[in-house]
């Protein structure tokens, strides 16, 4: 069994603030250790369930957060950016299951460090008219490869978002949001134990991936009208109004195109940190 693992940082055990997850934050280096250990817990669970290979993609911010010397040596790591597929770089139909560790809720939800990809710059995302964020786009793309997303860890709002999107996803809440930068934390040892056992249980019996439409409609509403204006230069992209664009394509090509959107948006804005 080959397992793919995408690791974000906002939903990691114990982390609640930009100082924890953004360089050069005063607690960022400690946050990197916490992130690596949550990922290690999921890797241990995967191997307990019979994994023969685990590929880990560092999916947060600069995408060079995980510490290779502390990472479980049985796993292979993808580190750095840019990557054509961003948070799902390396995922393909050769994998039997996917895990999301340290994920967060979408923009507009009162979850810990909640946002959608670009902090303040993305106001809303819809896939086929259903509002979504990083979790839904990940699951939709994985499903297009025939790979089920079987486990997600993060705060309680991220877990609720995952199960609302697809009820077959198992979740492990490692903290409970009190506000965007405050949470009631699950004790570290308890959280890591839950991640390990949760991964093992989720991988013990894999769900069947439900067939999805061959063509999907992605709509993104930006804070900046400049971004929407520039994106019109991409073939197939239509501007719905001053700040909203839409495009139709199949997954995972649609996810790759969305990553191009992010690079254009980064180039044409001077967006401050999302918090």
UniProtKB/TrEMBL annotation:
Gene Ontology terms for molecular function: metal ion binding
Record-listed Zn(2+) 2 binding positions: 8, 60, 104, 134
Pfam family, one: Peptidase_M55
Source species, domain of life: Bacteria
Sites where the protein binds Zn(2+) 1: 8, 10
InterPro entries: DppA_N, Peptidase_M55, Peptidase_M55_sf
Keyword set, alphabetical order: Metal-binding, Zinc
Active site: 115
Keyword Zinc: yes
Metal-binding found in the keyword field: yes
Protein name: Peptidase M55
Lineage: Bacteria, Bacillati, Actinomycetota, Actinomycetes, Propionibacteriales
């Amino acid at each position: 069994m080959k397992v793919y693992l995408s690791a974000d940082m906002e939903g990691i055990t114990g982390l609640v603030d930009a100082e924890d997850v953004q360089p050069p934050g005063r607690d960022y280096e400690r946050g990197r250790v916490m992130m690596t250990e949550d990922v290690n817990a999921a890797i241990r669970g995967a191997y307990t369930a019979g994994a023969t290979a685990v590929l880990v993609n560092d999916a947060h911010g600069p995408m060079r957060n995980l510490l290779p010397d502390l990472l479980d040596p049985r796993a292979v790591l993808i580190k750095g950016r840019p990557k054509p597929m961003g948070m799902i770089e390396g995922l393909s139909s050769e994998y039997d299951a996917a895990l999301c560790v340290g994920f967060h809720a979408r923009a507009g939800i009162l979850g810990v460090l909640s946002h959608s990809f670009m902090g303040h710059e993305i106001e809303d995302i819809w896939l086929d008219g259903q509002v979504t964020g990083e979790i839904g786009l990940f699951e939709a793309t994985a499903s297009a490869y025939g790979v089920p997303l079987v486990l997600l860890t993060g705060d309680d709002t991220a877990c609720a978002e995952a199960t609302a999107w697809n009820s077959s996803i198992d979740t492990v809440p490692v903290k409970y949001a009190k506000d965007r930068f405050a949470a009631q934390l699950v004790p570290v040892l308890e959280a890591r134990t839950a991640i390990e056992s949760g991964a093992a249980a989720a991988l013990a019996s894999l769900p069947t991936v439900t067939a999805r439409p061959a063509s999907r409609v992605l709509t993104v509403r930006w804070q900046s009208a400049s971004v929407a204006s520039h994106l019109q230069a991409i073939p197939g992209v239509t501007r719905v109004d001053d700040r909203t664009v839409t495009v139709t394509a199949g997954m995972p090509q649609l996810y790759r195109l969305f990553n191009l959107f992010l690079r254009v948006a980064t180039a044409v804005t001077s967006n401050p940190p999302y918090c």
